[in-house]
Amino acid sequence: MPLKPWRQEEVLQSSNLKRFDYDDLKKATKNFRPDSIVGEGGFGCVFKGWIDENTFAATRYGTGLGIAVKELNLHGLQGRQEWLAEINYLGTLCHPNLVKLIGYCVKEEQRLLVYEFMSQGSLENHLFRRRSYSKLLSWNLRISIALGAAKGLAYLHSSEPIVIYRDFKASNILIDSNYNAKLSDFGLARYGPDYGMTHVSTRVVGTYGYAAPEYMATGHLTIKSDIYSFGVVLLEILAGRRAYDPNLPETEKDLVKWAGPYLTNKRKILHVMDERIKGQYTVRAALKASSLALKCLSEDRKSRPGSDQLVIELEQLLKMCKTQ
């Protein structure tokens, strides 16, 4: 079956976004060479490139402003709807804790998105992958990154209309050269419920281990679905373990189920904490962080904190960490 043709008018005409020429992006990324690839996901490959920060013209590789160019794989897991969602959300939203979308490129069936380059990669890489560029994140940096991500969520949840992120996970939290956290990949985002409605009904999508149980069971999406996912990521940050790890013993594969019984006990909490940051925090700080994670993971979505409350509590925790 032939692919449905794209139409330029599908793209939101935002004055904040530049429409790039395909040949310029080709030049900026060294002709999309494999050694320019910095990531790959359901959307497609992500290439590193370089442009002039004022004119946005391609520059010699390694000079000017670093960019990340995401190329849509037309036969991949994400397609037209997600590509347009990314443009329509990031083309209008602007916050220090959201990755900046600089522009896009449309050439026949090809679709590309151009972002600011996040030099420290994803939180997932730092927590779970032993790559040469991945730095072992200290306790203070971990809490600072959690705070930055919470600020990004709080902005989305307070925008007009409200935006439900729907794909909050460690791989979508990117880190810049100053270790500031920024949310990326808005392909699955949705606007919140209309006035008088309690939720948005959608097909269940996302990544196993991060989605709220009520959303998985009913498809009912609310901002509290994002809060549950935040709790999972906060637990990953504390434990240095994945939300779901098939390589672990059966009783430890699911992080939330395994860690839950330990999170409120002063003696047991250390059993959950990442061994690599041992000695960098007080038991009081660990309990405060784990208590927040537990509140986010409540089965009752109404008892989960709001994203603005996450910001307040993490700011208090970071202040506690820096004065201890």
Automatic annotation (TrEMBL):
InterPro entries: Kinase-like_dom_sf, Plant_Ser_Thr_Prot_Kinase, Prot_kinase_dom, Protein_kinase_ATP_BS, Ser-Thr/Tyr_kinase_cat_dom, Ser/Thr_kinase_AS. It is found in: Cell membrane. Gene3D superfamilies: Phosphorylase Kinase, domain 1, Transferase(Phosphotransferase) domain 1. GO terms for cellular component: plasma membrane. Keywords: ATP-binding, Cell membrane, Kinase, Membrane, Nucleotide-binding, Serine/threonine-protein kinase, Transferase. ATP binds at residue 70. GO terms for molecular function: ATP binding; protein serine/threonine kinase activity. Residues 32-318 form the Protein kinase domain. It catalyses: L-threonyl-[protein] + ATP = O-phospho-L-threonyl-[protein] + ADP + H(+); L-seryl-[protein] + ATP = O-phospho-L-seryl-[protein] + ADP + H(+). Its main location: membrane. Its EC number is 2.7.11.1. The keyword GTP-binding does not apply. PANTHER family: OS01G0588500 PROTEIN-RELATED. Belongs to the protein kinase superfamily. This is non-specific serine/threonine protein kinase. It comes from Daucus carota subsp. sativus. The lineage of its organism: Eukaryota, Viridiplantae, Streptophyta, Embryophyta, Tracheophyta.
